[in-house]
Task: structure prediction
Amino acid sequence: MTTREFNFDGLVGPTHNYSGLSYGNVASAKNQGAIANPRRAALQGLAKMKQLADLGFGQGVLAPVARPDLDALRKVGFTGSDAEVVSRAAKEAPALLASAHSASSMWTANAATVSASADTADGKVHFTPANLNNKFHRSIEHPTTARILKAVFPGERFVHHDALPACPQFGDEGAANHTRLTRAYGEPGVELFVYGCSGFDLSQPAPKKFPARQTLEASQAVARLHGLDGSRGLAVFAQQNPDVIDAGVFHNDVIAVGNGPVLFHHQAAFLRTAELLRTLREKIGERFASVEVPTSEVSVEDAVQSYLFNSQLLTKQDGSMMLVVPSECDANIRVKDYLARLVESGGPIAEVRVMDLRESMMNGGGPACLRLRVELNDAEAKAVNPAVLMSDTLHATLSAWVAQHYRDRVTGDDLADPALITEARTALDELTRILKLGSVYAFQR
Ligand code: SUG
Result:
């Protein structure tokens, strides 16, 4: 039986826009008010999926949640017809209108935390959708995300939990703060949960400027739910360095990425680095390798600007590793030079591949944000809804679907256009048929 990693990328939805909704995310703030191109954004994402599928990696696609979310606006007091709700929100609360339109579900690293069956006490793959409690526009994703995950991973091999209680003490951002390390796929591993602060013990270190979105207690709850009790896989909890959160590292995957026995991370990523690396070496054994990037070579600021660590670290068929980085890494001379030295060094990372994901990057979402990793053995892979697995045909179908339904320009003003509601619904209704998801959207139920 073979076990391999699949990446499930989020498809960018038709209302992709730049509204500066994510305080603490430097790119989101910087690009507030910029003109978005949803069509280009979706095609960039599909091109990444296609490239990785062509290289032989397991690749799937996750549908976006439906936007605008008019129910979310009705819940906060906007009444009347759909068009009236949108026009009142545009006048009285533009930030709420933007929240209801955000295409943020594209960043599926935040969709859920996933534990491999090799790690869990009951030998099943576990999913906990992230409550994304720190930002209103993201906190309204999980009900639909949960339905989509159930439609993609059906049957008894998969266990779907509810999102954690929706309060800041249980703030949970999903796989963006979770990395699975293992000697080899299919073997029990260490699930590394990285949190920003304690939700209950306020005497613990915490960032001073920007919010810590993930709490220790949320990470512990997910580990308990998934049965990571050490009988097979083991949960390890480590705190993010609060200073890097204040420098714009709003998720751990902006400063570290792991795969197999390798952890690629910045020197300043964690609060107690030496202790963490010792634990990982002890649990994973000799093959564990830390590739630590020193501040003297790449500053935290360059890491945040280039998204060097928001890369995909993938094991190729020959066993060597490849790093998929955004083109912003190529444009930053210090990062580019570092990557050249990294490949020459003869370490575990043998290749770097650059991809253009600019539309997503302008909202702070790089290659790693756009994908949810799921390790699957043969039997589990067979149980996945086959309509979501990337192929030449699916890529062509989805590209044509995007070309037919997506605008190439969306500004803040466009969000008040009621025509966007119908356009998005028509597109997504058709998408659920292409991906054979059933009626996952509220407007279909
Ligand atoms: O939650 N940006 C997302 C980016 C998420 C990146 N994901 C990971 N690092 N895994 C966020 O901050 C910006 C939307 C706007 O400003 O319009 C936004 O939601």
About this structure: The longest strand covers residues 3-10. Residues 18-22, 25, 28, 102, 104, 107, 109-110, 138, 176, 250-251, 253-254, 363-365, 369 surround N~2~-(3-carboxypropanoyl)-L-arginine (CB under 6 Å). The two ends are 39 Å apart (CA to CA).
